[in-house]
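Q: Structure tokens for this one, please.
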Amino acid sequence: MQSQDVAQRHAPSAKGSGPVVDVEQAEAALVEHYPRLVRIAYLVLPPGLGRSRRVLTAHALVQRALPRGRTSAAVIPSQSTGRDSDPGYSFVRLQVVRTALEAGLPLKRRAWPKRSQLPPLLPQVWGLRLFPRSGGADELALDQRLAALSGPARAAYVLRGPERLADPDVRRVLAAAGAADPDAALTEANGVPAQYALLDSPEFDPCSLQARPTDLMRRRQHTKAALAAAVALAVCGVLVALPGDGWGPDGAAAPAYAKNPAAEAALDPGKLVRGAPAAWKSSSRTDFSVWPARGPLVRDSDLLRRALAVWARPGGSVHVSATPGTQTGGPAGPPRLLYAGEVDNARVVILYDGLRIARYAEPKNDDVKIAVLDLARVDGATGAEASALVVARSDDNVRYLTAPWVTKAAERDLTKPSGGAMDLDLTDGITAPLAGPALQSGHCTSWNALELTDASGTRISTDLGELVPAQLTTGRPGIGEAPSTSGAETLATWAPFACSLAAQRSTGVRSVNAWAYADQALPEATGTAEWVCTRAETWRGDGTSVLAQFHTPGGRYGAVAAKAKDVAACGPRDPHVLAGVLWKSEAGSWYLLAAGSRDTKSIHATGGITASVHGRLLAARAKKGARAELAGTLDDGAPLTALR
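A: Here is the predicted structure, written as tokens:
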């Protein structure tokens, strides 16, 4: 493992070369902040490239921002907390700004164009144009104002806004990125109103994209002759290979585009499955299959027909989103109707086909011809996982449609475990709006969660930007061990680590478990630190995310000590974990601290720090910036691999 510095780092002086950044550190910063870096590149790139090429170029510039070897981070902003204290992030951000500015230079200024001025070789998408979702009138107006600025001025606006840098730090970054006159760029940026919150909207998010075809007529003209020849050869080959009356390659399947009774039934609003209002009371199941049809528009055939048709064949004016691993095709048969009604400023229909939830929304104003279709996997959802769905979002608020067995709903700030819960009114199963954390930007100061109560108890879930809220649990993972879902201990465990849930937004998370696996007395008698492992499980099975986090006494937030993807550690199949950090005491001394779960017999550190201990807690003297590899042994003699 490469131990990470949790203590405060110091920014270099303006004249110094800055701390040394190696490839691994830069890569970790790039992966952790990839969406933010791509958004910066997209905003700084010249609008004349077009939205589709800007998207691909932004991704290409960020992916090429890694250094070839160890290098100095020449410009580090003056902030000393958060991502801006990370030399790796500062270096990668500078590279992104520099290449984005180079991309806007006229080709005639150089005999040979720079790589950033040419169309990206990678990534490439054939046959499709990718571009961010359209925003509102305010986003469009801001985009037009930014398009009128020079490249350095756009960079200054972005560094002031989402990056929250002071003007002196903006000048340093622009100068290091090659801007000829940083002062002029700042002056030009002053001409655009400071609407920085709009930059966090989907209009400027090149990681949340829509796909449309390229010029179909041109493609048809270029490939018509080759396609005709290929079809002729394929038909001749099939005719030669088939015996007299044998099956064709598609067997008994209907010819393409022929009418299919099952497909037609799936689009008939009269054949929608509508659950009885009290069916859930007598059923042994607690999933979406026993939800009743609710809402004042459950008999609006025109609305239901539009929802089904859009699900099967979304048009160009439909904004479609799906959680990772979710199929976007139409239902195989008539789905179940869960809700149809007006919520805020939209007409909403929620459908369930046994594997997926589909949410269709259209404006109440019939003059606006747009629609939204959101899809999410819910296969195997039962109990708490089938207790709530997002029915509407507006103005950073979210409303939920709750299960019929939910008797009470409340809002709770996870960062304040003793702050109590605020009750939410339930109207026809829909909660009053609560401030959702999924769209909040900037520094995390709170994290609102949904608390639902039914006959079996109280459970906590959180909005991570998808249709189904993720369940929050605590406790040691293990097959046959039931995690805790509520109570004072659960709230106290999550409080310092709630903000780390931001890393799981829009990744298809099903549940997140927090396990306080060790307490460690800090050197120099400065208190006891807590080690917590959080594991996020997804609906698709793969893509699990594990974070080992370290919380010092008196600190409001925990710090990520190690992370891993798609590993068994900290989960039911492997309820063990080992991680370490580089920690600085109040007296200025540096230590390597490491902790393993309760079955850990010994821990060994090699590399920049050599130390070992018989037991599951290690504390060893270290030097600032030292790196170590950790390994452990379990009580049964099996090796224990540290999270990296």
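A few notes: Residues 1-16, 75-82, 236-254 have pLDDT under 50 and may be disordered. The longest strand covers residues 509-521.
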